[in-house]
Design brief:
Blueprint lengths: L3 E2 L2 H21 L5 E7 L3 H16 L3 E7 L5 H12 L6 E4 L9 H7 L11 H9 L7 H12 L8 E5 L6 H9 L6 E5 L6 H5 L4 E4 L17 E4 L3 E3 L2 E3 L4 H4 L5 E2 L7 H19 L1
Parallel strand pairs: 1-11, 2-3, 2-4, 5-6, 5-7, 7-8, 8-11
Antiparallel strand pairs: 9-10
Helix pairs in contact: 1-10, 6-7, 6-10
Length: about 280
């Protein structure tokens, strides 16, 4: 068996095209769409992500507002930038690039965002809407995973999904999306300290690896014929690798997302989708 490769790059391109068409429709009504980024410090991974985001925003016909503060910026200074963007009518969506430098409270900064402009879907108000099953911005990476599964016709209803990783960025919101009424997966939330983890993951019809450990998941973690979603992005001496050993796992799984080119491109695409949706809601 050699698993089907689920290309997030391909799906992201479709999402970005959809977003560009919606941005153009708003432009015809005289409405621009703007996405702002707030970053502090000089984390290389964050800088790469923000640059990629900026290119995608411009390509979609949106306005891009990037605010890069110094590493020793104070809590008040960062929050003041967020408040200024809340008041800026040109800004429809906003993200705070995490992690912030030591000494800054990222949760407080995120909570300063106007929930109507929460492009990342990480504000407590947005997460509360997700818990309640109501419409609102959904965290970009989980949203991207759902789009990939849908694009490739992978039915999750009645399937056992094991998510390894319990972060508020991926694991927890993804579990809510997959377990929602009408989606109907049976979701088990595991983590790196789950006893006998491989015994659990080998029962999964769909395995989601989101722990941030390079090549942690080999063939011994995967049920034959399972679908494997690799969310990990780990920078090593040999370049970017995921949490999944792709070459080993593709001999067992029926389908797997690669790194790079899997879920990563979907995150930015779904940020754009959240932003244009916010612009549409605001009129």
């Amino acid at each position: 068996m050699s698993a089907q490769i689920l290309s997030g790059t391909e799906v992201a391109s479709l999402v970005r095209s959809e977003v560009a068409a919606r941005v153009a429709a708003l432009a015809d009504r005289g409405k621009t769409v703007g996405l702002a980024t707030v970053m502090a410090g000089d984390d290389p991974a964050s800088e790469i992500y923000v640059r990629n985001k900026h290119r995608a925003v411009v390509a979609a016909g949106m306005l891009s507002f990037d605010h890069h503060l110094v590493a020793d910026a104070t809590q008040d200074e960062v929050e003041a930038v967020v408040r200024s963007l809340n008041a800026d009518e040109r800004v429809d969506g906003m993200i705070v690039q995490l992690p912030l430098p030591d000494g800054l409270d990222g949760n407080r900064v995120v909570e300063t965002i106007d929930p109507a402009k929460d492009a990342d879907g990480l504000h407590p108000h947005s997460l509360g809407l997700l818990v309640l099953g109501r419409e609102g911005p959904v965290a970009a990476t989980p949203q991207g995973i759902m789009r990939v599964l849908d694009h490739y016709g992978i039915d999750v209803g009645g399937k056992l999904v094991v998510i390894v990783g319990r972060s508020i960025l991926v694991g927890r919101p993804l579990g809510l999306l997959l377990g929602a009424k009408g989606v109907d997966a049976t979701v088990v939330m595991a983590h790196s300290r789950t006893p006998d983890l491989a015994d659990l993951t080998r029962r999964a019809d769909i395995l989601v690896a989101a722990v941030g450990r390079p090549l942690m998941f080999g063939a011994e973690y995967v049920k034959p014929g399972a679908v494997v979603i690799d969310v990990g992005i780990n920078r090593t001496e040999n370049g970017l690798v995921g949490d999944v050993d792709l070459e080993a796992v593709r001999q067992v799984a029926s389908a797997v997302t690669p790194v790079p080119g899997g879920i990563g491109p979907m995150t930015i695409a779904c940020l754009l989708a959240n932003t244009v949706a916010a612009a549409e809601r605001s009129g």
